[in-house]
Design goal:
By secondary structure, the chain is α/β, with parallel strands linked by helices. It is built from 14 helices and ten strands. It has helices at about 1-10, 30-35, 80-90, 110-120, 135, 145-150, 165-170, 175-185, 215-230, 245-255, 255-265, 270-275, 295-300, 330-335; strands at about 15, 20, 50-55, 95-100, 125-130, 155, 200-205, 235-240, 280-285, 290.
Length: about 350
């Protein structure tokens, strides 16, 4: 993976002054230059409202589009010490939401302890659940009830409302198990129209193209899942695949990298810039390093110069107003209707 990044120079040449880590030899415009061309300033952070934590890269699945490169063989996981640092940082900043990701965060041995601590602090908790984890082992079968008890918002990837397209992206049998898990969540109240137990689904395109209109996709998913399986959910988030990790490898292998990057650049939407997720969040790696977003985390891009580097130092730092570190991968979040962890932004 490192060699791929070096060879195609997504982020090889650094310039701290411009806060851009991009290959100067590429024909594609710098993201910062695209902002300037559109009359927009370099991105700066607002108040810190969301803390997104990658609890580890262990997962019961190996999805072909995974930008985390997660799987059953990954052993990285967040220590209790880093979790305690995260809890302390919540008291020092106006964070209202903690977003737990992986891998499969539920596989972390301290997952439930951590959710309980967050719940005690009154945080809104989001769990990025791959659905099949609920059925992977008997010890996970009560997760829907656990989520309900702590009013956890469940955000789950479901590539499509048919088995063939879902299984091609996430593995044989995943669709069937996902449907069963969704029924279990519905059974305890998740996804019901008037329920405060939020169940949202995530759609990623299966190839080198942008997602269609989010509202239209949501209508299609709701109609099909209800008609075929009696399943209900609240919202569908359409998220653009970024050229990182396994999806980058796919683009390289199929010789679609340049085409896809040009598609992202040509679809740049100035209206999407203000809604990008990096402006009001900090992304925390399993080792405690902190980043502007989950994608910068995967590319090992730290916060801009003068900002803290580790979660242990976040409680004493002011990170509002910092310049966001950008690269050409940022075109993925600003193409078309835009893309964030909550779907389209424009």
């Amino acid at each position: 993976m490192k060699s791929l990044l070096a060879q195609h120079a997504l982020l090889s040449a650094a310039s701290e002054q411009r806060l851009v880590l991009e290959d100067p030899g590429s024909a594609l415009p710098f993201f910062a230059d695209k902002l300037a061309e559109s009359g927009l300033p370099v991105l700066h952070a607002t108040e810190l409202e969301v803390l997104q934590l990658n609890m580890g890269r262990m997962c019961n699945q190996t999805c072909v589009h995974c930008h985390v490169d997660a799987g059953p063989d990954r052993k990285e996981r967040m220590s209790r010490e880093v979790m305690e640092d995260c809890l302390r940082s919540l008291d020092a900043h106006p964070v209202h939401t903690v977003d737990l990701t992986g891998g499969a965060p539920e596989m972390h041995p301290d997952f439930r302890w951590f959710v309980e601590r967050l719940s005690e602090k009154g945080c809104h908790i989001i769990v990025r659940c791959n659905l099949t984890i609920i059925l992977a082992n008997k010890k996970y079968h009560d997760l829907p009830e656990f989520y309900r008890k702590h009013k956890v918002e469940v955000v789950s990837s479901l590539p499509f409302y048919t088995a063939d397209r879902t299984d091609r992206q996430r593995g044989k049998g995943v669709f069937e198990h996902s449907i069963e898990a969704l029924k279990m969540l519905n059974a305890v109240g998740y996804g019901m129209p008037d329920s405060a137990l939020l169940l949202n689904l995530v759609y990623n395109p299966a190839g080198a193209f942008l997602p269609g209109p989010q509202d239209e996709l949501e209508r299609q998913f709701k109609k099909s899942l209800m008609a075929d399986h009696g399943i209900q959910f609240h919202k569908l988030f359409a998220i653009t695949n970024l050229p990182i990790s396994r999806f980058l490898e796919y683009l390289m292998r199929t010789e679609h990298y340049e085409e896809y990057m040009e598609r992202l650049v040509n679809a740049f939407n100035p209206a999407a810039v203000q809604g990008v997720m990096c402006r009001n969040m900090i992304s925390v790696s399993h080792d405690g390093s902190i980043h502007d977003c989950d994608f910068n985390q995967m590319l090992e891009l730290p916060l801009s110069a003068g900002s803290p580097r580790h979660i242990r130092d976040l409680a004493q730092a002011n990170v509002s107003g910092r310049a966001i570190v950008t690269g050409r991968h940022c075109y993925g979040c600003t193409a078309g209707a835009g893309s964030s962890c909550g779907g389209s932004v424009a």
